[in-house]
Amino acid sequence: MNITIASKLMELYAACPKCGCEVIGNGKGLLECDTAAGFFKRSCGCGWHVEVTEVITEGSMTEAPPELPTEDEDEPEPVAFANPEPEPAPKPISEPEPVLEPEKIRPWNGFVHIRCEACHKESTTCLRTPTDTYICKECGHEMPLPKAYRAYTRCECGQKGAYLTNITDWAFDIPCVRCGSPNTVTYNPGRDCYGPVGSTQRRTKPRKKK
Question: What is the 3-state secondary structure of 61-113?
Fold first, then answer.
């Protein structure tokens, strides 16, 4: 970089093109120029700066100096970038709710009092082996056995009984296995079972099926 180019750079950037300050030093501006190294730097306290570096070779000594921008040429205005929108705060990951397993229905066994879901006929029998299906003796309908409710009876002849039933009425009759007399049982909400009439308050309204 020859002295002509260096002086032209000093004249071109004497004043800061951003704020117009011409002061160099005291923390307001800086000027560095090394013609031997082909280096020129001018900076301002407002943050603006420019650097010109020229690689000096034997061919560059004969070539014409590079064209420098004139004072009349306007520098491109800085492009203002809009502040990016802040990313939404991550939502806390809640613990997964436990998956409720379906209630397992145990096979029926022993004395049962079943009402057919097809013909609505009731039958009292004894299942000697555990089973989960029932075939109606009246209509031959085969149905799966749902959740069983326990029913306890006490007959006037002194016979006591314990049964499994699928009936969900508030009250119904189960015949005694000894004398055949109907024994009325009513639902006991506290124990979730049926007991002899009089042990719980009798209701005539049918229960809602679960």
Answer: HHCCCCCCCCCCCCCCCCCCCCCCCCCCCCCCCCCCCCCCCCCCCCCEEEEEE
